[in-house]
Amino acid sequence: MAYPEELVAPMRKDLTSVGFNELRTIEDVDNALKTAQGTTLVVVNSVCGCAAAMARPGVKLSLQGDKKPENLVTVFAGQDLDATAKAREYLFPYPPSSPAIALFKDGKLVHMIERRHIEGRPAQLIAENLKWAYNEFCGEGVISE
């Protein structure tokens, strides 16, 4: 059963307010990831405390550098069930995890942060991990609108 929309709305806004596009259907996920060019950051958002205290703040901090993904997208676990299930197919071979953060380059998964790497770690450490990945895989420039 999905969480009530009024509960998750502020958690959605936490990412959409910094440029993330929500993927709410299977079609949205396929359109964003199947033939993606460039770099795409996918956040599997969640209502859990580690998403609120570590994952979302870490992701937002990571975007403050010069190198960053060209596309920012998110699915919401426990809310957009079909879209989340579809996104997790693209995250294979990693097991389902929420929150989770994945970086794709030209449609290929190149970096993954699972829940077990988020829990108990400060947002700054998650941001540094992501910035390392951006330096490896992303060009300089602005995020697509």
Number of strands: 5
Strand order of the largest sheet: 1-3-2-4-5
CATH architecture designation: 3-Layer(aba) Sandwich
Strand content: 15-25%
If helices are DSSP runs of H or I spanning 4 or more residues, what is the number of helices? Answer: 5
Q: pLDDT below 50 for ≥5 consecutive residues: which ranges?
A: 141-145
Supply the CATH superfamily name: Glutaredoxin
CATH topology descriptor: Glutaredoxin
> Rg to the nearest angstrom?
14 Å
What does the model show?
- The protein is α/β, with parallel strands linked by helices and 145 residues long.
- It has a single domain, classed as 3-Layer(aba) Sandwich (Glutaredoxin), CATH 3.40.30.10.
- It has five helices and five strands; from the N terminus they run H-E-H-E-H-E-H-E-E-H.
- Helix 3 links the parallel strand 2 and strand 3.
- Helix 3 crosses helix 5.
Q: What is the secondary structure topology, with strand pairs?
A:
Elements: H1 5-16, E1 21-22, H2 26-33, E2 39-45, H3 49-62, E3 71-76, H4 81-90, E4 100-105, E5 108-113, H5 123-137
Parallel strand pairs: 1-3, 2-3
Antiparallel strand pairs: 2-4, 4-5
